[in-house]
TrEMBL record:
Matches recorded under CDD domains: DEXHc_RE_I_III_res (cd18032), SF2_C_EcoAI-like (cd18799)
Organism in which the protein naturally occurs: Yanshouia hominis
Gene3D superfamilies, alphabetized: P-loop containing nucleotide triphosphate hydrolases
SUPFAM superfamilies listed in its UniProt record: P-loop containing nucleoside triphosphate hydrolases
One Pfam family per UniProt: ResIII
Lineage of the organism: Bacteria, Bacillati, Bacillota, Clostridia, Eubacteriales
Top-level taxon of origin: Bacteria
Protein name: DEAD/DEAH box helicase
Keywords, sorted A to Z: ATP-binding, Helicase, Hydrolase, Nucleotide-binding
Length: 755
């Protein structure tokens, strides 16, 4: 993909998202995670073009040009490197699918058909594992905890679990609240041998240092790459290395197993390790935000939650620093920037924000407001980061750009210089989202417009650790002009804060916020803001409208068609004529909109127009009713159904060629036997037809009616007809036999009438 991207930005990715939206709906495209970061088996930093979760499956999607995997057209190193990347994804337990740029351009319908086949016609997409599901079980309410008390409570809860013979738990604490310390102290209380698992060298080294400081009486070893210290009392190892050398350990070698970044635990590599060892207790650690879907995969592994602490609660109890915010309005207009559920069109975005005026505003803002404070500027691309770093250097400010493509040694050098103040400003792109601990960060510049809640939250987490003398984290949101539908994330949108005063505490303990509000009411600035040139009387009402949240719980027009017993064309015509009025219309571009309806609107229109509502619970019954009440102008419907029953595989799929062969055999058999074939105007009665003509006839009549009722689906490019999954998997043997009998009776009645 690199070659294509260098020439055209992410045009190929934008095209894929458009095709994905057409296949499943714009709201479903929101589950695609673009440029998803992971590590290959050699711990090299990698990015998958897209990652999503479908049920319990982790899926990577790669978009390539025609030469990317042709060894004769690319350098050997590039070819082998791409193979390593793909194999590493497979090693992580992911499904991997690839599409070519040219294929998407000239065969868009084929790509959409393949997506439906590979991912399912009605997939159950979920937020990727960077968000955890809602916690159940023994989650504690963090809102009533005092400073550091959450760790005491967590330790007490963990011990209570063991006292009740429970053997596995999840510790869910926000970044910077000391979850590793809590885990180390709990392991120390147990006193037995410990295996600490993580997926990056940085996390492993940090954990080893923490164990040595808090439990100095035992040996602490590392197990990763060339460093193998398996006999230490505490072994901090990479999950990849441990998984490759399980035969070096007895399955009962460790009594306490800690899984850091536990949201990765559903991957096959982790599962291999977790299923091998037999510790007395297993503890999963995670700091990722809570997610709002029904996925319970992680909790199926980590049965109970020992303690839960999200970002906002952690700030309110004093475990993370309060957050202040200053919104810097730019004159950049994003209203015409194309977008989808995942991201802005990168070419449109580049043309808008890669301008000297906006970059200069970023530097001038730093000089005016936060000169000499250690600052991370989150940028839109490597090029963007380099441009802004260069501007800082021009005015004598020590700055550097860092990115995910940088060698780890170089990246660490810049990070160390930042901590020691040799570098004052780090301009970052696709970096610092995970695994970098720098409590010294005082200021974040959100200079990268993003629609991703995940990305914005990860960036915010980098600056929220406590540090001596750090009264708060100051976040600068660079607010470009945008429409309601392509508004970027911001601190106020993230926490749903409508009221804004420059520099005001946006997230903080309630007592602090109340005291500060009293000062603002008097027209006074808090002491913390004296150094910042903001006016205490400034006020702004922030528009926090979010179309994805508005669409949540609604149904798309695509889904509307599936839910009622009328044809697609009818729904489209009723929308055009204003007989169906969507509750939400999302303009993706000048000529492209997506329409959504509330559930009660669907029910209202169904009652108004006499439509029957269909869902997975009654779709099979509707199908059986269609069979029993089969109206027939020709004999085609029962013949089609009999062909499907004869050739369908275990998923209800039939090759269209097999159906055509069945039709030809059936009608030519009648002709040979001297029976009436069909009405005189039927191609089957006339004879001399081709397979392609028979196929067109079948798809026009009888298939169309079943398709309009969403009972049958035709995957055109693959030549497959499929019974809806919710119908096929619920049909009993008795019902299949009844269908066969009804078809035979219908055919007999039809021909007796035709005579």
């Amino acid at each position: 993909m690199a070659q294509y991207r260098s020439a055209s930005g992410s045009a190929a990715e934008d095209l894929f998202i458009d095709l994905f939206s057409d296949a499943f709906g714009a709201e479903k495209a929101g589950y695609l995670y673009s440029q998803y970061h992971f590590y290959d088996i050699y711990q090299n930093s990698r990015y998958a073009d897209f990652v999503l979760e479908n049920g319990a499956r982790r899926i990577a999607i790669e978009i390539d040009d025609e030469t990317s995997h042709n060894k004769s057209l690319v350098a050997s190193n590039k070819f082998y490197d791409d193979l390593l990347k793909q194999n590493s994804m497979v090693h992580l337990g992911w499904d991997v699918y690839r599409w070519a740029v040219r294929q998407m351009q000239i065969q868009p319908e084929a790509v959409k058909d393949e997506l439906r086949v590979f991912l399912g016609s009605h997939p159950q997409f979920k937020e990727i594992e960077d968000y955890l599901p809602q916690q159940r079980g023994k989650a504690l309410d963090g809102t009533n905890l005092e400073l550091k008390k959450h760790q005491v409570e967590a330790l007490r809860s963990l011990q209570e679990m063991r006292d009740h013979s429970e053997t596995i738990a999840l510790l869910y604490h926000a970044t910077g609240t000391g979850k590793t310390v809590t885990a180390v102290m709990d392991a120390k209380n147990c006193g037995r041998r410990v295996l600490f698992l993580a997926h990056t060298q940085e996390l492993i080294n940090q954990a080893a240092d923490t164990f040595r400081k808090l439990w100095p009486s035992v040996t602490v070893g590392r197990y990763m790459e060339s460093m193998k210290q398996p006999n230490a009392h505490v072994v901090c190892g990479s999950v990849q290395s441990i998984a490759l050398h399980l035969d070096s350990f007895k399955d009962d070698a460790f009594d306490y197993l800690i899984v850091d970044e536990a949201h990765h635990a559903a991957a096959d590599t982790y599962q291999k390790v977790l299923s091998y060892f037999k510790p007395a207790f297993t503890l999963g650690l995670t700091a990722t935000p809570e997610r709002t879907d029904d996925n319970k995969v992680i909790l199926e592994i980590f049965k109970n939650t020992a303690h839960k602490l999200d970002i906002q609660t952690a700030v309110e109890i004093g475990e993370l620093v309060p957050i202040r915010c200053i919104r810097i309005h730019t004159n950049i207009d994003l209203t015409k920037v194309r977008f989808n559920s995942v991201q802005y069109n990168i070419r449109d975005l580049e043309s808008k924000i890669y301008v000297p005026e906006r970059n200069r505003l970023i530097v001038d803002t730093w000089l005016q407001y936060v000169r000499n404070k250690r600052t991370v500027v989150f940028c839109a691309s490597v090029k963007h980061a380099e441009q802004i770093a260069a501007l800082f250097c021009e005015v004598g400010i020590k700055a550097a750009s860092v990115s995910g493509g940088m060698k780890q040694s170089k990246r660490k050098e810049f990070q160390d210089k930042f901590i020691s103040r040799e570098i004052q400003v780090l301009c970052a792109c696709d970096l610092l989202n995970e695994g970098w601990d720098c409590p010294e960060i005082e200021v974040l510049f959100m200079a990268r417009p993003t629609m991703s809640k995940v990305l914005y939250t990860q960036q915010l987490g980098r600056g929220m650790r406590l540090f001596e003398g750090k009264e708060s984290l100051m976040v600068f949101d660079f607010v470009d002009n945008a429409s309601q539908y392509n508004m970027p994330q911001s601190l106020h949108r993230l926490f749903k804060l409508k009221d804004y005063k420059p520099g005001q505490l946006a997230v903080a303990p309630s007592a602090k916020k109340a005291a500060e509000a009293d000062l603002y009411a008097k027209g006074e600035k808090p002491e913390a803001l004296i150094d910042w040139p903001v006016d205490a009387t400034d006020y702004e009402l922030v528009d926090i409208f979010n179309w994805q949240e508005e669409a949540e719980g609604m149904i798309s027009q695509m889904e509307f068609v599936r839910r009622v017993d009328v044809q697609t064309e009818t729904i489209e015509r009723y929308v055009r004529e204003g007989k169906l009025v969507p509750d939400l219309v999302v303009p993706m571009s000048e000529h492209r909109t997506f329409k959504y309806f509330k559930e009660d609107s669907l029910e209202k229109y169904a009652e108004q127009y006499g439509w029957t509502l269909i869902d997975d619970s009654n779709r099979k019954d509707m199908f059986m009713d269609m069979i029993r009440q089969m109206d027939m102008s020709y004999s085609y419907k029962p013949v089609l159904v009999k062909a499907i029953l004869l050739y369908a595989d275990d998923k209800g799929r039939v090759k269209l060629d097999d159906i055509v062969s069945y039709f030809r055999s059936y009608y030519e058999g009648r002709r040979t036997a001297g029976l009436v074939v069909e009405k005189k105007n039927s191609i089957f009665a006339k004879g001399g037809y081709t397979d392609k003509e028979a196929e067109r006839n079948i798809l026009a009549n009888p298939f169309k009616r079943f398709e309009d009722m969403q009972m049958l689906r035709h995957t055109k490019t693959l030549g497959i007809v499929q019974i809806d999954e919710s119908v096929w998997k619920r049909l009993t043997k008795e019902e299949l036999a009844e269908i066969e009998r009804i078809c035979d009776e219908k055919i007999e009645t039809y021909y007796s009438r035709l005579k």
